[in-house]
Amino acid sequence: MAKYTFELKLEIIQAYLRGEGGYGTLATRFGVLHAYQVRMWVNSYKQFGEEGLMRKRKNNSYSIQFKTNAVELYLTTEMSYFELANFLEITNPSILTRWVKEYRHYGIQRLSKQQGRPPKVSDKKDKVIISEKLPNKVETTRIQELERQNRALQIEIACLKELRRLRREETRLEMKLSQESSTTSEETSN
Which residues contact 71 (CB under 8 A, 6 or more apart)? Predict the structure, then answer.
């Protein structure tokens, strides 16, 4: 059973959005152990709506390539774990934290480590079918090249989005400064 119900999470988020307090205040008021948890709920709600608050019954499995791309995006951009999780549509940013930590300590081998018990192959027929499905050397090389290109494009897109955000922020600041200067010049002329 989940420790916090969907209704409680929604009530806390609505209180936050109404401005009834910050993460810590609402965590204390509603008996949530950590303010960080409230922040994660608000983030999930803003990104995914009510679906982001639902308890997942199925664990997502991510490919090695996806994990590697996510780690490289984090290391090459100035996005936070929350921003990157939203960008990649991952509901739990702590997964990214773990991937980056494992990558830094153990390298890519740790990300490619299979979790859990290996699948059981019952007889020779299954082994033959599995070996036929394995890609040959040319296919593997081509796949790796496409994955490298894909990773480069994802990094480029993330950089362009960040550049667009910075330009919008710069434009807002310029507009604000021009409004302030025009207000100041009007006051001095009167």
Answer: 96, 99, 100, 103, 111
Cα-Cα-Cα-Cα torsion 154, 148, 111, 118, nearest 10 degrees, comes to 120
Is the pLDDT assigned to residue 129 strictly greater than 60?
A: no
Question: Residues 5-15, buried b or exposed e (16+ Cβ, 10 A)?
Answer: eeebbeebbeb
Residue at 132: amino acid letter: E
**What integer is the mean pLDDT of 65-77?**
86
The residue extents of the domains of the chain are: 6-53, 64-115+136-175
Q: How does pLDDT run across 3-33, given as a tens digit for each residue?
A: 888 888 889 989 999 999 899 999 999 898 8
Residue type at 22 in one-letter notation: G
> pLDDT at position 124, please?
52
User: Rounded distance, CA 73 to CA 66, Å?
Assistant: 10
As a whole number of angstroms, the distance between CA 82 and CA 87 comes to 9
In angstroms, the CA 190 to CA 188 distance is 5
Token pair, residue 43, equals 């983030």
